[in-house]
Fold this protein.
Amino acid sequence: AQKVTQAQTEISVVEKEDVTLDCVYETRDTTYYLFWYKQPPSGELVFLIRRNSFDEQNEISGRYSWNFQKSTSSFNFTITASQVVDSAVYFCALSEAVEGGSYIPTFGRGTSLIVHP
Amino acid sequence: DSGVTQTPKHLITATGQRVTLRCSPRSGDLSVYWYQQSLDQGLQFLIQYYNGEERAKGNILERFSAQQFPDLHSELNLSSLELGDSALYFCASSKGGTGVNTEAFFGQGTRLTVV
């Protein structure tokens, strides 16, 4: 079963629109970490944010905001006033303990965001 | 720039061959992770090393192996290559291997094409 589900495969918007990327995760652990990464067309994976399971405070960074809700196991990402440069594949990841104690990020399949001018 | 360096950026090789991918982690990071990204499988965790020791194993084939050296750089060895091994291979590093220190920063990746 998928531990991280990004149900939206592709989203297409016009510049200046707001867009929300959904992420639903599954874990039995009480301590875990959630991440968002951006993969632009150039291919590198860029770290955007980390959230701890014990901190449900939402976060805003410029045009980016994240809504973490443990009750629904969701960690959604909103881009306000989207720009063409936001076009990329966005990955949500869950890091939980595995055998041996390491925390390993497991990634969703990603959401491709296309922002048209 | 994440501070994680991967070489080479691109690699084209024939089936049956062996290649080595190299990764230098961010300064101060002790943990290195290897991931494979392909269209059909997405981003798959392969293996993790922490301060020179293997810590966790994911979906890594027996034909693949890795190691982390005393200077903390890591190498991923892929042998008896098949067409299906063509993928983008990422290395990531983090300060530690547990808890909050697992914030992972990724290199630019090595695109491997097996022909």
Observations:
- The two ends of chain B are 31 Å apart (CA to CA).
- Chain B is about 0% helix and 50% strand.
